[in-house]
Design a protein that fits this description.
Length: 261
């Protein structure tokens, strides 16, 4: 009997692949891809290029022009999607071989923002930012609003070394889960992030209520404003962008996290 159970378990699929709402490897050579109500809506210093790709021939390029000390740089891609309380995003990110996060006054740089369209307050709005670590690399920090009030930013446990010298000139896989809190008084908002399958942010008790009628998300942007600016022109690439409103791999039972990396 035990043997039979083992055989049955062996034959069952470990996990079923959920077809995501959106899956773009940029092989069309453009940002015209759209599916299930997900599409690109605003680009700043963005192109689709064959200069680098994680897979295939094309990837999305983020171009930050060189900026003298005291000035900022900007490159950002926005994506809109149907209104949801929970968002999953996954992408491969190429860290430039000349990546150097300088300290220059306000030096926090946007990394990934998730919000309710029109990016105002009140309205659901959270982001992960990068803080300079003093040696050219970057740590993570969490920013969020609760009912229109900006909350104290902090570094999540595990987020100290998101980008290190050894990441320069390499691809990393970023995955994130964002879940809005269930009510104004509930501290159950979720912001999780994985780098190469390792949790670098595991916040599951956040107050980040969007406001009455505003407690959902329907837009995000990747990278964005760099308050530090970059001394040299700095180019990131993104490939294999996946967006969904549930885990990318459905768990085989409710106790699994749905994360198999
Ligand atoms: Ca590609």
């Amino acid at each position: 009997m035990r043997y039979l159970i083992a055989m049955v378990a062996f034959c069952l699929p470990i996990a079923s692949m959920a077809e995501p709402l959106f899956n773009d490897g940029f092989e069309s050579g453009s940002l015209n891809n759209s599916s299930n109500g997900v599409s690109y809506v605003s680009s700043k210093n963005i192109s689709v290029t064959q200069e680098k790709a994680k897979d295939g021939s094309y990837a999305m390029k983020f171009s930050y022009p060189a900026a003298p000390l005291g000035t900022d740089s900007f490159s950002e891609q926005r994506v809109k999607y149907p209104q949801t309380n929970e968002l999953w995003i996954k992408y491969d990110l190429y860290i430039p071989d000349n990546y150097y996060h300088r300290m220059d006054g306000a030096s926090n740089n946007k990394f990934l923002a998730v919000f309710k369209t029109d990016y105002r307050s009140p309205g659901f709005q959270v982001n992960w930012s990068l803080q300079p670590n003093g040696s050219g690399g970057s740590s993570l920090s969490i920013h969020r609003y609760h009912n229109g009030q900006l909350q104290r930013a902090f570094e999540p446990s595990g987020g100290a070394n998101l980008i290190t010298p050894s990441d320069r000139g390499t691809w990393m896989t970023i995955m994130a889960q964002i879940k809005v809190p269930s009510s104004e008084s509930a501290n159950d908002g979720v912001m999780k992030m994985w780098k190469n399958g390792v949790l670098v942010c595991n916040e599951t008790a956040l107050n980040m209520y969007g406001g009455n009628g505003e407690n959902y998300t329907d837009e995000l942007y990747i990278l964005g404003w760099a308050n530090s600016g970059y001394t040299e022109a700095t180019y990131f690439y993104v490939d294999n962008l996946l967006i969904n409103n549930e885990p990318f791999v459905k768990p085989k039972n409710p106790t699994d996290t749905g994360v198999t990396e």
